[in-house]
Amino acid sequence: MPRLFTGLEIPAEIGQTLSNLRGGLPGARWIDPENYHVTLRFIGDIDGVSANEIASMLVRINRKPFDVALQGLQSFGGKKPRAVVASVVPSRPLIELQAELERLMQRLGLNPEGRKFTPHVTLARLRDASNQDVADYLSVRGYFPTRVFTASRFVLFSSRASTGGGPYVVEDSYALAG
């Protein structure tokens, strides 16, 4: 059973910039730059028939390319930080693409996504990182100049069941050519 999700790939040059922010945070498990992405819709563990149905449904999406801006770092998890992420500015085309993917997945019978869409790129997963260590890290590395790229496609990724962080495989890609 593949574990699937849709997302945007991060261009290699931006991945290199983000990878330069690695290190200096106890308890961080850093994601490899080739696995950086913006998750649009987590689908989950799906049987082969459903996976084919999802892949053929995604072909119907007809949207134009749009710019994606990465701006600054933050942590997720509140008092118990669980990840360090690069923030993605939530533009209208990005929000609309995510909402369309959500509607399509529900139409196929998947449960609604339980969390509010907060676009980001996960840089590190945290285990036993203290609030102070995360705050110190963010105060030193949390700012970086905004990086912008044009999303000209979104992809259907698969991953093996694990604690996250890849490796991710592009199963199919869908041009944004609307």
From TrEMBL:
A motif (HXTX 2) lies at residues 120-123. Its EC number is 3.1.4.58. It holds the Pfam family 2_5_RNA_ligase2. The active site is at H37, H120. Keywords: Hydrolase, Ligase. InterPro entries: Cyclic_Pdiesterase (IPR009097), RNA_CPDase (IPR004175). One of its GO terms (molecular function) is ligase activity. Gene3D superfamilies: Cyclic phosphodiesterase. A motif (HXTX 1) lies at residues 37-40. The keyword Cell membrane does not apply. It comes from the Bacteria. It catalyses: a 3'-end 2',3'-cyclophospho-ribonucleotide-RNA + H2O = a 3'-end 2'-phospho-ribonucleotide-RNA + H(+). NCBIfam families: 2_5_ligase. Belongs to the 2H phosphoesterase superfamily. ThpR family. Hydrolyzes RNA 2',3'-cyclic phosphodiester to an RNA 2'-phosphomonoester. This is RNA 2',3'-cyclic phosphodiesterase. The lineage of its organism: Bacteria, Pseudomonadati, Pseudomonadota, Alphaproteobacteria, Hyphomicrobiales.
